Amino acid sequence: MGDNKDDRLIVWFDIDNTLYSASSKISQAMGERIHAYFVSLGFSHEEASELHLRYYTQYGLALRGLTRHHDVDPLDFDRKCDGALPLEEMIKPNPRLRKLFQDIDRTKVRVWALTNAYKLHAERVLRILQLDDLVDGLVYCDYAEPNFSCKPEPEYYVKALEKAGVTDPSKCYFVDDNRGNVQAAMRLGWGHCVHFSEHGLEIVEGGRVKQIDNENLAGPKVIGDDNVQVITDLEQLRHVWPEIFKKEI
């Protein structure tokens, strides 16, 4: 995947809780498996909850803390957490989303996925959603790599640009359901960043249930001092980024 000599614009889509709705409860199911993994290491339920939240908050990914502080095999973690999810029962193809991807003008734009998951999980989700043939490249957390990086660490974004052959970050378009990940990309000069947030739905961050609430957003808006644009439906990208879509005849 990918062409290091390609100078088209590039759109980066996060995968989990972005390409499918948080209502699928995948994050909750994942949180339960991660909690069970902490407990299997000998932690009490209270300690497991505390460490899960601390590592997620500190590193952006609970597994980063586990590998740094508890000598955990990340591939074992992946098999028992991401790999154990019954994804085929939880998400289905979305024709509307596929049409959105198809309507991106490929003469001007490349489409890549940018995820904190491992390759196997990312490819599995894209395949189930029937988007795998519309994604040109994938940047993921390489659990086989010692001291791997993840969003929102700057090293992760630098690695993504290198893998995609991007020399000008202002050509990057990026959408993610995690505001911190979007802010990190903006600090590195990524030109067009959007926070995807489904109003009123619950997600799990760091093992804790969190209510998504962006002041009853009805459409794309800029929220907060960081000037992050927020959308509640990926279809709104047609209005936020009209230049990347094919012109209607």
Euclidean distance between termini CA atoms? 31 Å
For the secondary structure, the number of strands is 9
Report strand %.
Answer: 15-25%
The top-level CATH class of the largest domain is Alpha Beta
- CATH 2nd-level architecture of the largest domain: 3-Layer(aba) Sandwich
The main pleated sheet reads as: 7 strands, mixed
Morphology call: globular
Major sheet strand order: 3-2-1-4-5-9-8
Which fold name is given in CATH as the topology of the largest domain? Answer: Rossmann fold
Protein name: Pyrimidine 5-nucleotidase
InterPro entries: HAD-like_sf, HAD-SF_hydro_IA, HAD_sf, Pyr-5-nucltdase, SSM1_domain
Pfam family, one: Hydrolase
GO molecular function: nucleotidase activity
Give structural notes:
This protein is α/β, with parallel strands linked by helices and 249 residues long. It folds into two domains: 165 residues, HAD superfamily/HAD-like (Rossmann fold, 3-Layer(aba) Sandwich), CATH 3.40.50.1000; 62 residues, DNA polymerase, domain 1. 37% of the residues lie in helices and 16% in strands. It is built from ten helices and nine strands. Helix 1 crosses helix 2 and helix 2 crosses helix 3.
Helices and strands, with pairings:
Layout: E1 9-13, H1 26-40, H2 45-59, H3 62-69, H4 74-80, H5 87-90, H6 95-102, E2 109-114, H7 119-128, E3 137-139, H8 154-164, E4 172-176, H9 179-187, E5 192-196, E6 202-205, E7 208-211, E8 221-223, E9 228-231, H10 237-240
Parallel strand pairs: 1-2, 1-4, 2-3, 4-5, 5-9
Antiparallel strand pairs: 6-7, 8-9
Helix pairs in contact: 1-2, 2-3
